[in-house]
From TrEMBL:
Signal peptide: none annotated. It comes from Buddleja alternifolia. The chain crosses the membrane at residues 12-38, 65-91, 97-114, 263-290, 302-322. Keywords: Membrane, Transmembrane, Transmembrane helix. The keyword Secreted does not apply. It comes from the Eukaryota. This is Uncharacterized protein. The keyword Transmembrane helix applies. GO terms for cellular component: membrane.
Amino acid sequence: MENSNSGLGFGYYYWLQWQVLVCALIIILPTAIAVNLLRKRGGEPVKTADLWAPCWRNLHPRWLLFYRAFAFAAMSFLLYQTVASFGFFVFFFYTQWTFALVVVYFALATIVSTRGCRVQARKPLAQSGERHRFLKKDSEEIKYDTSSTSKEKVGGGFIKLESDHNPNPDEEQVGFLENLLPILYQVSVLDIIHSEGVFLSSFTLSCYAYGHCLLVSSAPIHDEVQASVSALKHLIGCMHSLNAVFLLLESALNRLSFPWFGIIYFVFWSCAYIVFQWVLHACCFTWWPYPFLDLSTTYAPLWYLALALVHIPCYGLYVLLVKAKNAALSKMFPHSFVRCN
């Protein structure tokens, strides 16, 4: 499709097609539902120890810190090399969005783990809030007795104990970074499953049907851009694999929970990329990085609907993986493994 005389991306007639309105509704409706669910969700308590303590009792938190720092350094180096070689043009593709998100997660996780190790260094593990998780039933009874007897009757009066002022004196303060870390983790793992699924399915279709990768547009573009895309395709497989490996190891080590509302932030992230692409194409770009995002075909609403619906099985698959992890490892290592909530 040719551009208009204004020279801005596609002509205005491109955005007046009926499929554009349908695709816009497919984006707006899930976003509105996600916003409504987020407003009704309310506050969820964050257990700070779950952010930096491993799910293995005998594994010191510093090992999780070392792993997160190594993952951040390795992925940051690869992202830097990619941007240095191809410029910020690489962020035109969803793969780099996902990769950058995981880099940010590991950077934040390293900071939180550093704080956690400092907290543990100031007090033994048996004296911290982790005691209630390790001693299970007995510690829960002690905690209940302590809270129920926080006031003692002496000589007709009441003596207020220290627990009345601070019911959890060993619990460190929850800040912005501690609240942001679970959100980034939930979006990252769902994003990896989503992008890996699209990548593998597109690669399979390219092998059996088209003979070229569906993850890169086959539309005619400038020679210099085409050369960059061709070179960048060689890094896509490596970045996909590195994303998956590092997050799988992270999931096997950490104790982060995975509540149902994690899919809300995943929807926001996906919609942000779609809006990003639409804005670019409305302003300056005339080709799509992925052909299933092209709005000029009559099948565009079906593609967008499929991309929207695939969020549900992605969430369900990871929930099954978490439950399988808890069920299998708790039976295999009953005295070493700590179940994730």
